[in-house]
């Protein structure tokens, strides 16, 4: 064969470590393209098939992206991409993409639009927004967003004087957890990743965190590494997830009772003296109060409450304590479950503290130490908000990302003041927010609704003006600060020119600023290179070689930033009032909440009803990727998991199509049944994101069932405003 | 000449399907057909369950029934130990599809020839690993040269008990499986 | 057990279906063609033995039918090729271990034998009608060798019938096919169907009765081989045991196979019984009665039907069989 040893050696020498055989040689995108010759181009960039921001390298041949690979330098990807990352080409070349700006031509929801030029569309948007700001005040313009486009439109809104900007990533996802950890440690457990040192862990506890199905790349790489090294997994989940299949202890807990288990574990650890005394003394506050508060939570009680065998409860925490501090109780990510979730997150945080995991090998690493110079490209300060933003509602610990459903409620009620226009970028609200009926009602109440997105989703198709953003493979974004064990900077840059008449969000935002007469907030410079110019200035301010980033590595490390473990000269800093880990939270106490988590019982379904729980597929990101050919192919519809005994009782066969009807009489699309031993008898499970009602998304439309449609009930967490969404009960309706 | 082989550490497979999509894009595999697949086999009753994760692909057998049966020499052995299809020689008789005990071959509907996993031979020639291996998030797929005693695959196969699929058929596969179930305690 | 697979191909999942009725028809016609070669040749050779001279006594069309039926069969096989315009690739190489490769080459050998034999056996009154002088001359030139060609055809007919079973039997991955007895079954069936056609077309009572008697033995042999085939699988490994299950399971999914066994189980014995009825009391000089003719032709048709059912059932059921397709390690 043509592959000679010599050519191999050439590559081996090129690759950093000179690995033994056929290792992907990559030191520089440009060098690799040169070595391969022809019309090949390698473009280092950042993936946006989900929001883990992996480094990707796009292989471009004759102006077409033919392959995506993981950037070996980037700590979030380490040379690998997941299925979605690999399938990103499908998003780029999806024929169902939004292709031109569109202006509504008929009633909302009828789906009738006319194509418009960018100039016409943006002029129209600016005119409308100005009119609404003049009439109701700029604060009546609200925005909801996810992912990178948010930055550019936040700029537009703040420049206009509205701070009513909310991200579903807070109240519908991880904001609850972040606030709980801020209260405890003065740190979020990482913003783009949880600071878990999985690859060195001896014991990993996952509470409803389904690694393997929740495909965050580097975290899963470390999880597999830990399994390979023989780490013990303790998986608490009513469903036998992929992670549970790797676990030494699978605790099929009764849904909604996780806090009972956690508090009992805390009690056991304290009463058995398994906690890290030295660590607790040195770094924490409030141990005695915790000890007192958890006394009541005995294993006998927990066994009854959680429906887990007592032996399993005790044995698992013994294993956990035995290997402490090289263990971790994963902080989790999607946290809006039952409406009392902050306290569950607090319990996890406290448990970690007692085991001494923060700053310990195999526990949670300390945040990297890096100072990025302030850079805002000399954009003037924003005008003060015309009225105080309403996005935190009555929730004392709602974070800066805002509480989406508060914005929605205000849109419906007009209180405390009216919201008349929405700017929605990169999020399919109908599938994100609980109770679609309210979302629809709020949209119907709007005077004006602009959507910026890639696809004609059900939410986008309710907008008055639709602005087609280009995909991540066609645009600049960032620079991104990447904070893993080390700090670093990553780039997103186009692999190809934008297709159709789509534009990068930075350009849309900047042009809109100009149309609004807010030129000083627009990106400096003209044309499609303007943002790259800004990136260069930013790199300069940060002391980073932009060309190295763009042409060669796609990621650069901030040297010396990695200080993951506590040592004599590397002490942790806790940004709490006491500058310690606050096991007992005076902040919570002050606002009338339990300063140490207490167990609150929640409502459970009656017989014949099942709690609806939902989760992720490794090949899909929410509802964003269902229409992507290579991913759609792998999973075209979701299934509802039903316990085998229950299925026998109901006479439902595996593979049979059924409908689910919730407590409010709302019925799902038909959905295939997976009759399985892998789930408890009192709940059913489905993957979130399916069941599109978006006729212009040909593959995704109508395939599978939409869990969000069934989530008409939600319980707001009084501390943070997170929407507990696992509180809906469904029954199975057999198809006639 | 190298003798290529793959080792699959089943315990490390997290079923993420990155290999499946990477393969499709790398090799421009048509819609709805695949060169590699992932099986999840769960046994037992709630709550005592066991799972085997198993990714499968062409085994590049040393004694490949597909090569034996091929009337035109399209399916053939190469010096690097792989089994390849010379698509220009294929008449689409499908005997090889029937002959393969592993069900890893398919027809390229557009052109009519048979196709299958090539161990990404084009990448091997560039000094890269197969696409599925390069992107295997769990590090479950390990690739290398059996003729190199120091290669990772050689070391693993020396030290670890391993299996091949359907050994009794006598195809002598070059894809080896280790750690059928995750170590649990 | 709960099995989920991501990344399956429709051609092999949930069960393999690479070959369909086209291949079944080819196998049937190939076997029949072999049977006709052998049986028509035996007919000539018997006449030679009895009368001392070889004569085209009856059914001169039969030797011609053999290449025509084989060609139709090959046409269906060609229809099954995914790259129909690449057929020449068979002849760019010879793969000694590939039955398909030698099949391709053997055909080049069989056709001349069949055709020359057919020409040699043409009676004079037909030959005069031939306009093409080359064919006519060849027919004249071959006529003296009719006896030798007939002997050659007996052998080649047997080989052709056996060959039709070899490709399937060589596929280790498909246990139902992977049995050395399969070529013998196809031989017996091919000969039997060939004999059945002889019975129908033979004008001479003596010949009809001869082939009827012969067919009784062939059918008995065929039934024995089928029984042995099932017994062989049943006593073999698990995959082979599984492979024959569709034939003995009347559930919805496997009903066609169950039915095929029922049909074969009725048709072949019935054909035998009918044949016994025909043979009995036919030793007289009387011509065969009208009713006797109906019996004969019916039983012959049943034999043809049985032969077709066997090919179809085996082609389809073989594709269901495998080594625990997706579950076994």
Description:
The complex is a heterotrimer of chains A (736), B (185) and C (329). By secondary structure, chain A is an alpha/beta fold. Among the domains of chain A are: 99-167 and 402-468, Rossmann fold; 172-368, 3-Layer(aba) Sandwich (Dimethylsulfoxide Reductase, domain 2); 610-734, Barwin-like endoglucanases (Beta Barrel). Chain A has 25 helices and 27 strands. Chain A has a 7-stranded mixed sheet, covered by helices on one side. In chain A, strands 21-23-22-27-20-24 form a 6-stranded mixed sheet. In chain A, strand 1 and strand 2 (55-61) form a beta hairpin. In chain A, helix 16 packs across helix 18. Chain A is globular, with a radius of gyration of 26 Å. The N and C termini of chain A lie far apart (61 Å). Residues 1-24 of chain A have low confidence and may be disordered. Chain B has 185 residues and is of the alpha+beta class. Chain B has a single domain, classed as 2-Layer Sandwich (Alpha-Beta Plaits), CATH 3.30.70. Chain B has helices at residues 18-26, 65-69, 95-99, 121-125, 131-135, 152-159, and strands at residues 4-9, 37-45, 48-56, 75-77, 83-85, 106-107, 114-115, 141-145, 175-178. Chain B has a 3-stranded mixed sheet with strand order 8-1-9. Chain B has a two-stranded antiparallel ribbon with strand order 2-3. In chain B, a hairpin with a 5-residue loop joins strand 4 and strand 5. Chain C is mainly alpha-helical and 329 residues long. Chain C has 2 domains: 18-170, no CATH class; 206-329, no CATH class. In chain C, 68% of the residues lie in helices and 2% in strands. Chain C has helices at 21-51, 61-80, 99-120, 124-127, 133-142, 146-169, 181-201, 205-234, 238-244, 255-279, 290-320, and one strand at 2-6. Chains in contact: A-B, A-C, B-C. At the A-B interface, helix 1, strand 3, helix 3, helix 8 and helix 9 of A face helix 1, strand 2, strand 3, helix 4 and helix 5 of B.
